[in-house]
Design goal:
The chain has helices at about 5-65, 70-85, 115-125, 160-165, 165-215, 230-270, 275-285, 310-315, 315-335, 365-385, 420-435, 445-450, 485-500, 505-515, 520-535, and strands spanning about 90-95, 105, 130-135, 140-150, 155-160, 295-305, 340-345, 350-355, 395-410, 415-420, 440-445, 455-465, 470-475, 545-550. It is α+β, with helices and mostly antiparallel strands. The protein contains 15 helices and 14 strands. Belongs to the adenylyl cyclase class-3 family.
Length: about 550
Amino acid sequence: MTIRRKIILIVLPLLMTPLLMTVLVSSLSARNGISIIAAEFLRFKNDTVLNYARSQWDLLMNNGFDSDPEFVAAAKEAVSSFAGTIIRSDTELILAVDRTGSPVLATRKIELSPAEQESLAESFAKELEGWRRLRLAGESYVGQAAFFAPFDWYILSTEKEEVFYAALGQIYRRTAIILILSLAAAAALLIVFSNILTRPLNAMVDVIREIISTGDLSKKVSLQYQDETGQLGHYFNLMTGELDKAYSQIKKYAYEMVLAKNRETRIRHIFQKYVPNNVIEQFEEAPESMLKGDNRVMAVLFSDIRSFTTISENMSPDVLVESLNGYFEKMVDVVLAKNGIVDKYIGDAIMAFFGAPVKGDNDALLSVEAGLGMLSSLEVFNRRQRSLGMPPFRIGIGINYGVVTVGNIGSEKKMDYTVIGDMVNLASRLEGLTKIYHEPIIVSESVQQRVASSYPCRLIDRVIVKGKSSAVRIYTVRESLSEKEKEAWEIYHAAMDLYIRRDFAEAGKRFERVLELLPRDYPAKMYRKRSEDFFRNPPPADWQGESVMTSK
């Protein structure tokens, strides 16, 4: 909004408000005055009719004819005739009704509706006198009302409402014309004066626009008035002069900043290959936190290529590196797609974690989905390997979920954003157990509890890993099961319950049934053999189904 428009919108209401209040008060005063005079005039007529009616009644009383119906009727007729003589316009109406609301006197012919008669009868019953607004013959009337008990009449001297307030309508129309003319005159004067006041500012805006479009800071504003706007233009000219001096220095600094930004982008791009981008952003905001650790609950994933030494012996170094890079690219894409962080490559192994630096609500589920996705991507990778005449890869994946220490571990000269703790070591052990149990993916019980509702899980064993004294439950996970696999897993779970309860004979039969459905199921083969061995040589009394691992 321009200053000129603001001046008009501010000043015009200030000018018009007092005028509007004055006109409004005058109009209301005129309305009240006219209303009072007109109302008193109708009251005078009503009183005149009442007085004449009383004189007729007094005449009857004095002559003893007040009980004679003929003389009473003649007196009423005289009152009716008198009422007609004081009417001064076709719109006036003097009316008298009885208790039923039916007209008994009218200065002109009028037909009342049943509703109008009912309203008059109600006013009669309530003895409402004085100023009244009412409907007669479908039109609005105003007037004065009074009772005349001797005749049992309810007398009204009325005038049509539109005629009664006709003078007020003329006053309102003239007032509106005055207001419109005053508003137009004030607006025209304000436009002229605002143009004069804003002319220096408009000139300054034109100069600023020209400076922006051309970049020429030598442009000056012409000083039109010796007032505040003139001072503003003078100081504006001084400012542009100083800016012109600094402009060359600003361009120099801007050029140097662009060079620095390009160097920073290149360095950042290089470091993103070693440190996650969100970690870099976190430490840019708080550099002092770079050497601090944080304990939190996270999911850690380890994956490793099976028999990689054998594979590498049969491949040239350049082909081996090309295959590994293609493998790592697919695996890393899956981890990143599930909000995971690739911590490091340990030879042909991958270590990743989920839940840092940003904590999620379903880190365990995301880690399992990443593991299953890695297995699916491995199938795609192996199809390409076979098409190129190279050996396929097989991998094992271990996942654990628990409390770890996460942060930048190291010194100011060399550090690594990673996770450490006993829970990380267990995740690594789980990955190693995939070789023993011939399963592509093994997870801990803490992971199983959080994904069992989303993916089918199967208990593999209760193991005491190397370096631990207590047993942990380990599970395998599948993305989905066929109908035969579902049936086999149900039998397997029942067999595991029998096995742990030391019913080895029945457990062996159940595991045999699993092998009939899934002949190559290694856990079923393993537990069938264990059941046979324990049936012949039972385990110790404190045995609870655990197996002790003597190697990593």
